[in-house]
Write a structure and sequence with these properties.
The protein has about 350 residues and is of the alpha/beta class. The protein has helices spanning about 15-25, 45-55, 65-75, 100-105, 180-185, 195-205, 230-250, 255-275, 280-295, 295-310, 325-330; strands at about 1-10, 35-40, 60, 80-90, 90-95, 110-120, 125, 135, 145, 150, 150-155, 165, 175, 210-220. It has 2 domains: about 1-220, Spore Coat Polysaccharide Biosynthesis Protein SpsA, Chain A (Alpha-Beta Complex); about 230-310. About 40% of the residues lie in helices and about 20% in strands. The strands form 3 sheets. Strands 1, 2, 3, 4, 5, 6, 7, 12, 13 and 14 form a 10-stranded mixed β-sheet that branches. Strands 8-9 form a two-stranded antiparallel sheet. Strands 10-11 form a two-stranded antiparallel ribbon. Helix 2 (about 45-55) links the parallel strand 2 (about 35-40) and strand 3.
Length: about 350
Amino acid sequence: MTKTAVVILNWNGQKFLEKFLPSVTALSTAAGTEIWVADNGSTDDSISFLKKNYPQVRTLLFDQNYGFTGGYNRALRQIEAKYFVLLNSDVEVTANWLEPMVDFMDSNPDVAACMPKLLAYNDKQQFEYAGASGGFIDKYGFPFCRGRILGQIETDNGQYNDMCDIFWATGACMLVRSDVYNSLGGLDADFFAHMEEIDLCWRMKNQGHRIVVIPKSVVYHVGGGTLPNNNPHKLFLNYRNNLFMLYKNLPAKAFHRTLIKRMLLDGLSVGMYLIQFKLRFAWAVPRAHCAFYKSLKSLRQKRAELQKVRTVEYHNERYKRSIVIDYYLRRKRTFQCLNEKR
């Protein structure tokens, strides 16, 4: 069995493969490492480019775009390895990016997944929005990172170079144990894209696994390669999937009150978009709630199954306050400003 499979999911991403695959192939040379590209039904010249320039890279071809979740689930079912690395096509890796994570996982069997430090490709002194130096969520499910609170992104001055337990690892570059991934059924295909990795990590943690950031490993991420951050459909997916995630994973005692308060906060966000005359963004939020209500039957089934195998109710890496209130009212704009006891 291969030890580590680095798996890049591609959809019409020839320009990213041309730009970033050279660093992946040149710097992922540890023994027992294979590089795969799983193609989600691309209509550009991605596959012909790969066959011509990277015959050593193994490929899986799908008939259509199954999204991040469906694409990875289909790919990883066909790959045998001890560790999977989910790597976005718009990531530039650096020397020694993979070995620290693999070595740490080898030495810590209770850790199900880990991630490197994620910096911005276009400004390599800045953390990158999608993961920075480790992901967390607040009491209402809003995600944030060491190095990024809501839209406030910090400069990397080494302030988050320590390894630590985190709540979620970024799907832009996540190393995960294949046996844990497979036992959990992989990513939830109903998410299609966005927040699916947070849901997966929450399910891992609810079964007693740890998630860790390894800042000694560094990669650079472009971000917004498929859907830019100012896209209303991306906003719809984020709001809908966040509700999916909360419904599935919240502990029983906090379930109803957390969902109700979260929906009230979503209502406030609609008002903010209306004040800014961002009508398509405002409409994305109630659309997300309608999609959530339509999915309640399947969500109830998923929650019931997950509660049967749950071994941990609460997690230290889940912030016990509202990050939105702390950001806007208490003006806490960096991770270091947050109360560690919380």
